[in-house]
Amino acid sequence: MTSSPLDLGFIGLGIMGAPMAGHLVAAGHRLFVHSRSPVPPALVQAGATACGNGKEVASRADIVFIMVPDTPDVADVLFGEDGVAAGIGRGKTVVDMSSISPIETKAFARRMGELGCHYLDAPVSGGQVGARNATLSIMVGGDEAVFERVRPLFELLGKNITLVGGVGDGQTAKVANQIIVALTIEAVAEGLLFAARAGADPARVRQALLGGFASSRILEVHGERMIKRTFDPGFRIELHQKDLNLALQGARSLGLSLPGTASAQQLFNSCVADGGKGMDHSSMVRALEKLANFEIGGK
């Protein structure tokens, strides 16, 4: 536990938010929670207090964490009817750990600043496994003094915690992360598909590659998913698709060409069209398999 219990809020208790909130309450903090979905009973049993809306959370907590899917969701949590802005007081802090638009993040921070509140954007990487094991990478944007005050709480949630820069820079880092992850998933999928179609055992090929320069966490974890066909979501395709939309929109505004990102997005689009939006993003391989008329593990 950190030095003394704090009054914390957590809004958004999905497959990422619920275990993250669990780490905070397990550390002995007083936790006030709200979610569109029912609050997990285990959190309440652990000592969290369920609240009826974001306004109530903000009125009772000094630091409010948000973990929801998309930019409009954060806007609603903050500024919707009975939202955080309606209940928060001067000197309190909002920490948005969602993955959303860097541009909108800066606008949200300005509006909360006008209310006398501090604001950090702190998106994460590591998926459900990282959330459950408290091994998330956390990319933070905001004032350094505010970051240092919140750092002990971040350390309950993750291992690689970096202050990237000012407000919005955490979100920019997360978009860059999602570009790299998507392109690496595509590369792993193409490599294993090639190996399998050529008649090699993809599991043994993967094992061989893990010892060389092609080794990566994605080859290790998602390569195994592709071979074993285990596509239950750790991170859903529809969420990664949303993040790549942010990348491509940003690229247009910056005058950049991101051809690999566009290719990966088209493969995700194909998966969604085939009913796979709720599958793990490693199932991008299914779109490539359809193009090849061959499935990894097929004969």
Characterize the structure shown:
With 299 residues, the protein is α/β, with parallel strands linked by helices. The chain starts with 6 loop residues before the first strand and ends in a 7-residue tail after the last helix. The chain is elongated and about 65 Å long. α9 crosses α11, α9 crosses α13 and α12 runs antiparallel to α13. A six-stranded parallel β-sheet has the order 3-2-1-4-5-6, with helices on both faces. It has 14 helices and nine strands. The model has no long low-confidence stretch (mean pLDDT 96).
Q: Specify Rg, calculated over alpha carbons.
A: 20 Å
Class inferred from helices and paired strands: alpha/beta
- Percent helix, as a range, is 40-55%
Q: What would you call the quaternary organization? A: single chain
Mean pLDDT, all residues: 96
Q: Report the end-to-end length measured between terminal Cα atoms.
A: 54 Å
The strand line-up of the biggest sheet is 3-2-1-4-5-6
Strand content: 5-15%
Please report the number of helical segments.
Answer: 14
Which characteristics define this entry?
299 residues, six-stranded parallel sheet
Secondary structure topology:
Blueprint: E1 7-11, H1 17-26, E2 30-34, H2 41-46, E3 49-50, H3 54-60, E4 63-66, H4 71-79, H5 84-87, E5 93-96, H6 102-114, E6 118-121, E7 124-125, H7 127-133, E8 136-141, H8 144-154, E9 158-165, H9 169-197, H10 202-209, H11 217-228, H12 237-254, H13 259-273, H14 285-292
